[in-house]
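In the design runs reported in the main text, the only information available to the sequence generator was the tokenized backbone. The following block is the verbatim input for one such run; it is reproduced so that readers can re-run the procedure and compare outputs position by position.
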């Protein structure tokens, strides 16, 4: 009897961090209602390839029993025009450090006075400039994404 080896996928998990505008403003001809960064975290997780293919998403979103977004809180340093991720108590308890990378910058607008927010991508420089001039509130983490890193 032939034993089939189970293929395992390697992947990283990322989260979106979304803020509402305290007051809407115009940028690139659109009324901006919110802003979002997509952040990818460092630990490489694994899953069975067949589990991913069956579900269509990465089955494990936790690291050491916690969702990765719970290890850091994003803060924007207006004077430096850059984001930092402040470790929470959960992160301080880890033996190995976690790292993060901002991979996308989006603004959200309501086209044609609709109730639907539509994202549009901007550069890091544009995003940070707007964040330094406008107030953003109500931080939310509403979704996650995965980035495949190959097979084991």
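Verbatim output:
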């Amino acid at each position: 009897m032939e034993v089939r080896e189970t293929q395992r996928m390697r992947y990283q998990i990322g989260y979106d961090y979304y803020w509402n505008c305290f007051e809407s403003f115009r940028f690139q001809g659109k009324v901006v209602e919110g802003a979002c960064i997509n952040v990818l975290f460092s630990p490489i997780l694994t899953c069975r390839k067949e589990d991913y293919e069956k579900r269509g998403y990465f089955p494990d979103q936790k690291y050491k029993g916690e969702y990765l977004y719970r290890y850091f809180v994003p803060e924007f340093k207006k004077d430096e025009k850059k984001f930092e991720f402040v470790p929470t108590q959960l992160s301080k308890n880890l033996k190995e450090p976690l790292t993060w990378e901002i991979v996308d910058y989006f603004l959200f607008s309501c086209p044609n006075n609709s109730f639907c927010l539509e994202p549009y991508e901007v550069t890091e420089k544009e995003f940070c400039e707007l964040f330094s001039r406008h107030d953003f509130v109500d931080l939310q983490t509403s979704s996650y994404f995965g980035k495949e890193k190959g097979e084991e």
